[in-house]
Amino acid sequence: MSDRRALLLDEVRKFHQDAQPNQPFIPGVTEIWPSGALLDAEDRVALVEAALDMRIAAGPLARRFESEFARKMHRRKAHLTNSGSSANLLAVSALTSDLLEDRQLRPGDEVVTVAAGFPTTVNPILQNGLVPVFVDIDLGTYNTSVERVAAAIGPKTRAIILAHTLGNPYPAREMAELADAHDLFFVEDNCDAVGSTYDGALTGTFGDLSTVSFYPAHHLTMGEGGCVLTSNLALARIVESLRDWGRDCWCPPGESNTCLKRFKYQLGTLPQGYDHKYIYSHVGYNLKATDLQAALGLTQLAKLDEFTALRRRNWRRLRERLDGVPHLLLPEATPNSEPSWFGFVITVDPAAPFTRSELVAFLEDRRIGTRQLFAGNLTRHPAYLNQHYRVVGELTNSDIVTEQTLWVGVYPALTDEMIDYVGASILDFVAARG
Ligand SMILES: Cc1ncc(COP(=O)(O)O)c(C=O)c1O
């Protein structure tokens, strides 16, 4: 490293110390966010280094991240994207590729999912002309059950896509077995659950494809970003093509002729020898992420195990503080799982002598950030009122979540003091209002 570069990076470390003065926690004054990124001096240095090298597009750092992340997540391939929503779009769109021949999903085919969740788990189904089949969830785990998904499978059902809600795994092994038994594709939206395990294996390793988000609220961050993972090489190739404009060629940006046949193809009705770099086998997108994002992803990835341990610790501490509190349904880990929690979910008993809004207002007044369980029941939102979908069973619990549920944070930057203040505040509120 040149002296000037080393000096600059050293200055960046010093700058980081100055920019992050150790502020004492003042209850009721210091903001306790529900989620956020934990960024250290090495994250800042990584971003500056990438900027010094002018790594402004996808390149070697993106490829290195893909290979390290795939290894960490126990999958053969990872494809970096510009968001978790893009990752979901790619995963579902990949299932419609005609390279899948008789397994290809076609317009009108059905995909089973849950009604209560994040919109961009469901949107790619609609965006591909497929039909979502909504099932309900359980309160407490906020996931659906294998029985509900099994009951929703009909003659047109071709795939299942489910998110592990707020880090809590659903029974992914049993879900994969169900998908196998009915010859369905299974996509795990793992955006909120990186580091969680079910039956001893990482979530994201059970499905044909899994997706991740690197938005700052999530377990690892790149600012914006996402990833599609798979161990199925045919699906990996389709995902890459769809991500990279739909092209047939798989050369990384800036490289040519890795297949040694660049001018030897004849595809479609193109002339013999048409440049493979510009032959398109899918109607694709450009959903790539940049090396600047990947640089941050690499330093964040090194801290994943530490982040996972802190999320678990914070969740456990708050769960212990609140154990036995009346009128509130506390979260439960799915049996046989070890969640890397995204948040701490609470449902106010509909018969409680207070409302969710009152609890939320009380907490927000104490600077304790709250969130709702994303969209609640998606079918009640304006965007979905006129969409074509099927519902199997009642959406009773999805409606309860829409009206009664909130969550507070457990992310790694929260300290014991903060978690204790959140716990004590909830107990104060219930004692005063209960
Ligand atoms: C379950 C789930 N899926 C997908 C996404 C979308 O990720 P992104 O915000 O990176 O597009 C989110 C975002 O929070 C999410 O919670």
UniProtKB/TrEMBL annotation:
Keywords: Pyridoxal phosphate. Pfam families: DegT_DnrJ_EryC1 (PF01041). InterPro entries: DegT/StrS_aminotransferase (IPR000653), PyrdxlP-dep_Trfase (IPR015424), PyrdxlP-dep_Trfase_major (IPR015421), PyrdxlP-dep_Trfase_small (IPR015422). The keyword Repeat does not apply. Its cofactor is pyridoxal 5'-phosphate. The keyword Chloroplast does not apply. PANTHER family: DTDP-4-AMINO-4,6-DIDEOXYGALACTOSE TRANSAMINASE, TRANSAMINASE. Belongs to the DegT/DnrJ/EryC1 family. This is Lipopolysaccharide biosynthesis protein RfbH. It comes from Micromonospora antibiotica. The lineage of its organism: Bacteria, Bacillati, Actinomycetota, Actinomycetes, Micromonosporales. The gene is rfbH.
